[in-house]
Design goal:
Blueprint: H1 2-23, H2 29-49, H3 55-78, H4 84-103
């Protein structure tokens, strides 16, 4: 259950990171409310996962999911660069997440 909570927390991190772009500096009400709600839920679920998972592992996986998801959505939604080196580095982050799951 802790790993599932951590996955959801990471996906919510992606949501709030992308949401920040849509808030336009917290000047738009609805995106700002959704972003702040996603932030709160993400950290809350991380806290619940930390009840049973090692702190370093959980935090690294949480930020890794957030980084990978945000980078991919940046490419898809905002036209961020998608060259080979960038995709390879995203793949390395995914390998680190999988590795941490396998050894935990």
């Amino acid at each position: 259950m802790a790993w599932f909570l951590l996955l959801i927390a990471g996906l919510l991190e992606v949501g709030w990171a992308v949401g920040l772009k849509y808030t336009e500096g917290f000047t738009k009400l609805v995106p700002s409310i959704l972003t702040l709600t996603s932030m709160t839920a993400s950290v809350g679920m991380l806290a619940l996962a930390l009840k049973t998972l090692p702190m370093g592992t959980a935090y690294a996986v949480w930020t890794g999911i957030g980084a990978v998801g945000t980078a991919i959505l940046g490419i898809v939604l905002f036209g961020d660069p998608s060259n080979f080196a960038r995709i390879a580095c995203i793949g390395l982050i995914v390998a680190g997440i999988v590795g941490l799951k396998l050894v935990s």
